[in-house]
Amino acid sequence: CLWEFRYAEFTSEMNTGSERCSLYLYHMRLSDDVLLDVMARFRAEMAKGLGRDTNSTATVKMLPSFVRSLPDGSEKGDFLAVDLGGSQFRALEVKVFNDGKQSSQLESKFYPTPKEVIQGSGTELFSYVADCLLDFMESKNLQHKKLPLGFTFSFPCKQTKLEEGALLAWTKHFKVRGVQGTDVVSSLRKALQKHKDIDVDVLAMVNDTVGTMMTCGYDDPHCEVGLIIGTGTNACYMEEMRHIDLVEGDEGRMCINTEWGAFGDDGALDDLRTEFDRELDLGSLNPGKQLFEKMISSLYLGELVRLILLKMTKEGLLFNGKVSTALLTKDKIEMKHVCAMEKYKEGLSNTKEILTELNLFPSEEDCIAVQHVCTIVSFRSANLCAAALAAILTRLRENKKVLRLRTTVGIDGGLYKTHPQYPKRLHKVVRRLVPNCDVRFLLSQSGSSKGAAMVTAVAYRLAAQRKQIDAVLAPFLLSLDTLREVKNKMRAELEYGLKRETQASATVKMLPTYVCGTPDGTESGKFLALDLGGTNFRVLLVKIRSGRRRSVQMYNKIFAIPLEIMQGTGEELFDHIVQCIADFLEYMGIKGARLPLGFTFSFPCRQASIDKGTLVGWTKGFKATDCEGEDVVDMLREAIRRRNEFDLDIVAVVNDTVGTMMTCGYEDPNCEIGLIAGTGSNVCYMEDMKNIEIVEGNEGKMCINTEWGGFGDNGCIDNIRTKYDKQVDEGSLNAGKQRYEKMTSGMYLGEIVRQILIDLTKQGLLFRGQISESLRKRGIFETKFLSQIESDRLALLQVRRILQQLGLDSTCEDSIIVKEVCGAVSRRAAQLCGAGLAAIVEKKRENRGVEHLQITVGVDGTLYKLHPHFSRVLQETVRELAPQCDVTFMLSEDGSGKGAALITAVAKRLHNIGRK
Ligand code: ADP
Ligand code: MG
């Protein structure tokens, strides 16, 4: 007999071999090769759906759901939901408790969906939904509460917000007039407004797949896929925002509702579709549409079986060729029949009963054959579903750039839940198709309905968190008016520093440098330079050539200054410096030559001549004793004398800003400003002698080292200092000093970020509220991490990795917040710096008495050079606040080395002229 086969073959789940299959059923049995092919086709289709230019022609629509976050267990509250589009329509109340146990309480009521409602008009449909909700609320005594509501609406919708979406097309057995293309949330809202006594706020609209993922995500944080195998079939998963062309923004992830039911609507699966699939489609409400769904979902399985049985009977292969009226009736065989017939353990009794009820008079062989048909049809469903799911899992794995993916798939749907073999088959095939994914399949309890409440709960939590984060970062957002105020205050402080009466108490010290001219190109010779005051201490040999072969050659060596020396005694510090010089001279073989030396000493010094500088006070990380108030050149000379090994001609003591200005001035005579944005923050510029009251003479110009880092030390910018700035200040070596520098320079930005992160964590907004050991460590968050984290090219995953290296275990959401914090801090720094610089260029413009000023600023400093946005924001701010100045920014190449040598050369030249 054609249909003879053994029970054993059933249990071996029709692997291969059962050759006795009828010819047309042969086509329904899909080998792994075919499934891998389906998987590849589906992957291509997903990519097409995500692409901006290809989306319109894609059958798999890949609809953004605007769900960006999964539950994190801290949600709480009382939420309503209505679920429309599944097998049953229901209203729910979900209570979520933030008790650390992910507990929730659900109460619901089912309502019928009469045919006149689901195939009537839109107004009728939504007022029916509203009526049912009102009934539910009355039965639960909720009508006087204002509750947020989530709307599960399981049809393809083009969402534009979490609470806004237009229906693309009805699917399943729905066909309501006047809804397609309109926003279903506002229709629901309108219907709800008609009931005066209820006050609900529709906060979210979700697809049942998304609801399932969210519900499972509440129990299992690994859940990032939602799958429905019920009346319809569909899947959603968390996609990287940067791959979603249709939604602005690149940060984080968003759940994509694939709407995979439409896979194949362009003919992509035609080679796999059988004559029965075609016949079923023609008899459906939406012919030509949802072709993948029609091969999978429970709404169609029974009908497929019926069509096959009908044909086989007509060909005399079953029931002695006798067709019953029942067998001729559409939808007479339902999924529940298929499930019952496939209960092998119950033998053939179910099958026999069902067939008998259909007025077919089955023999035992008929029953076996029918059972087999059911198996083939439902197994194909599981196979196809597995192939598409495998494609999603592969995409997730590749997005995460991991070799093995560990993930959880949340599942809901009647077919999966009630069919005796379906889950086992699906799991097995998925694991075969994607062996490099460890998948947990989590059955969702009323996932699709509860999910809308979960989405609403998450949206609620996020809105509350957003408010808190905004409140923390708000003081970092400076308005243009505030920046203008900063500029004006800076301008006032510059004037105080220049005036004789106010100079002593000025916080912006405006130190004369005795550098009066920029290089003219005639400088030449060999010079030594020292660079002290930055991250590194360096000794340099600089060879300058003049004339036609004008060039500067430099050799340098970096020496570490140990912390105990930076913060030890002055003698120890200068002995160490001289030791380094000795090493360098030895290393270069120039110990005997008494070379002129320029000493770049990047701390505020009060100078009486170019080679005399009294340290006003240490800044940045230095705090050696017995130096403040002393002449640093004397201290260096004494240390050289103490060593008594070599002699040097110390010609100039130079601030790094001045060195930077000189270096750029060597290339561009229009450069009259030097800016440092590195460990510290400072500016110098050429000021008219007549404005410098504390230096004799009114002719020409002199470079002023502003030492603007001290701006605000009199409290004049305390209105914009945040509590985080104050914490950073209190933890620093020079509390109360350099307030502007502490808001703008590399040494402090990371520390400000760390203080904010601690606060956000304390508020439970980051790192699950846990302040890790590493976050407690001062200095752990270096400014270079700001640059890395804020880089546009960096995916969020890499941000997470950076944080991980710092010992900060972050989620995706955490990384977004950290990045936002970094951005706020560095942006404010650049804006404040820009406001200060605007004051300087405006002053220069007024000095020259011109309407428009063209000027070049020489800039050095790693913060300026390496941070991805700092320089741009700084420049934009200057342009905004000093519109009459056309400022060119010129990067300095090693200002502190080359500049010191140039200043030494100029000083030497002037000195020689003087002698002559
Ligand atoms: P200086 O100490 O002479 O100012 P730099 O100009 O090189 O030297 O500045 C060093 C400072 O720059 C470091 O203290 C650090 O705060 C900051 N920094 C280092 N790397 C980066 C980076 N990649 N992006 C932004 N800032 C950085
Ligand atoms: Mg430097």
From TrEMBL:
Highest taxon in the source lineage: Eukaryota
Reactions performed catalytically: D-glucose + ATP = D-glucose 6-phosphate + ADP + H(+); a D-hexose + ATP = a D-hexose 6-phosphate + ADP + H(+)
GO cellular component: cytosol; mitochondrial membrane
GO BP annotations, alphabetical order: glucose metabolic process; glycolytic process; intracellular glucose homeostasis
Keyword vocabulary terms for this entry: ATP-binding, Cytoplasm, Glycolysis, Kinase, Membrane, Mitochondrion, Nucleotide-binding, Repeat, Transferase
Enzyme class: transferase
Membrane topology type: Peripheral membrane protein
EC number: 2.7.1.1
Subcellular location: Cytoplasm; Mitochondrion membrane
Pathway where it operates: Carbohydrate degradation; glycolysis; D-glyceraldehyde 3-phosphate and glycerone phosphate from D-glucose: step 1/4; Carbohydrate metabolism; hexose metabolism
Molecular function via GO: ATP binding; D-glucose binding; fructokinase activity; glucokinase activity
Main location: cytoplasm
Gene3D superfamilies in UniProt: 3.30.420.40, 3.40.367.20
Residue span, Hexokinase C-terminal domain: 225-458, 672-906
Residue intervals of the Hexokinase N-terminal domain: 25-218, 469-666
Mitochondrion is among the record's keywords: yes
Keyword Transcription: no
Family: Belongs to the hexokinase family.
Protein name per Swiss-Prot or TrEMBL: hexokinase
